[in-house]
Amino acid sequence: MSIPTPAGVAVINFNNDDIAAQQGGSSRGQGKFYTLYGSNHSAGALMAWAWGVSRIIDVLESLPNSRINAARIGVTGCSRNGKGAFVAGAFDDRIALTIPQESGSGGSACWRLSDSQKSSGQNVQTASQIVGENVWLSTAFNSFSNAVTRLPVDHHMLAGLVAPRGLYVIENTSMEWLGNLSCYGCQTAGRTIYRALGVPDNMGFSQVGNHNHCQFPSSQQSELTAFVQKFLLGQSSNTNIFKTDGNLNYDANTWQPWTVPTLA
Question: Active-site residue 213, yes or no?
Answer without folding.
Answer: yes
